[in-house]
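User: Teach me something about this protein's shape.
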Amino acid sequence: MQAETHATAHASSDARAQIRFREHSPFWNELTRRVDAHFAGSGRAQTGGVRMVVKTLAIFAWLGASYFALVWYASGWETAVPLAISLSLAVAGVGFNVQHDGGHDAYAKSKFWNRVTAASLDLVGGSSYVWRWKHSIMHHTFTNVDGHDEDIDSAPFLRLAPGQRRRSFHRFQHWYAWLLFGFLPGKWAYWDDFSAVIRGKVGKRPIPRPRGRDLAVLIAGKLAYTGWVFVVPVAAGHSVGLVLGMYAFCSLVTGVTLAVVFQSAHCVVEAEFPAAGEGGRLERGFGEHQLATTMDFAPNNPFLTWYLGGLTHQVEHHLFPRISHVHYPDLAPIVKRTCDEYGIEHRTHPSFRAAIASHVRHLRRLGAPA
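Assistant: First, the predicted structure itself:
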């Protein structure tokens, strides 16, 4: 099945040598069979189709309108702040929807269009090349495995997994984490990506350095991002100080939005953080591992599901990352029914608020003195 192999087929040989899942179980075989049957019966492709094209146009129109209004028409703080928030949420929306599907080869059947839409991340500050290794391969394969999933490594500032070293200031992490999240966009754009390329590593795990087209896209993306974020507003007559201040505010809104969505799916009290046993073997198969480490939240909220690119259905996304998010609401009942039949827990927070509260409890618990 195309969807089933994405998280493992692209993992490096080094990664596979260190961590191994158990053999696919009857549960996983039956689940993939049912999902295949769903698409065969409906006649739909697993990619996004026209719905994703329309959604992409809508999100970029939102981003463009917010940007031009902020740079050329905002007359004071009372108009600039709402427009900056709108722009920040639109940038996050590009990541949640367009880039995310493209980066997982789920946007279109065409490899070219998947590359193009994945590269939308380069336009909003990130690197689609580094993201592919950090997120699509490492995070999606070894979810919540400390030392292998870079998404849960924020040392020394945050303790996100039980196996990580606790420092005295972590007792306050459930308070100061929100400020740190605000630094993430700038850190990703101007430190993490360059560090990964120069070192040839994401965290402790080696990655090949980009060459040719990949390197050209990375450099062009950084230049384009710097241009529309800093150069154009200054050229339009805004002071450097004002532009930097507005960038910091937009980074805070975007960073908190992105971090809360992803943290609420994995870094919560109900999620597990498995450790590899002898020979690097995990105790579960791939499907069961994703269900133990990932949670849905607010799955019945249509607005959040639309805006967050289906990431309210994180379980379905982690099980089938190469299926476009527009199909997740249809897959969720299939996954839930199969889990119930095989006695496997499908973990869900009924609301976004409940998921955030669980994340706060997780930070507080891991930060507390033993």
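Now, about its shape. The longest helix spans residues 77-103. Residues 1-17 have pLDDT under 50 and may be disordered. If you'd like, I can walk through any region in more detail.
User: That's plenty for now, thanks!
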